[in-house]
Amino acid sequence: MTSLSNGFVCVMGIGTVFVGLICIVFICMLMSVAVRAFSKKAPKQAESAPVTSATPQAVTLPPAEKQAIVAGVCAVIAEELGTDVSNIKVLSFKKA
């Protein structure tokens, strides 16, 4: 059995990778053509999109959920500061 030179192994490896990448590119192009062909056959929906307001609407949560969120945030802050949750006093909690 003959041993292969290091250069030959490198060239074969790089060649294999590039051939594989070229095959992936052609497969992607083929899939793109197929998707375009199927999307032309599908019925198109209404072109006009629903009008949305520029300002986001505020979401109101029940008090129990608000308290759970504040408790979770306080627990994370206490863990990061290395202190107990009882040492943290929440003065204000507003969505930024």
Describe the structure.
The longest helix is centred in the first third of the chain and has 36 residues, at 6-41. It is flat and about 75 Å long. The protein is an all-alpha fold and 96 residues long. 57% of the residues lie in helices and 0% in strands.
Oligomer category? single chain
Percent of residues in helices comes to: 55-70%
Q: Unreliable stretches, pLDDT < 50, 5 or more residues?
A: none
Strand/helix succession: HH
- Give the CA-based shape: flat
Give a short summary of the structure.
With 96 residues, the chain is mostly helical. It has helices at 6-41, 63-81.
Helix-strand blueprint:
Elements: H1 6-41, H2 63-81
Give structural attributes.
96 residues, mainly alpha, 57% helix, 0% strand
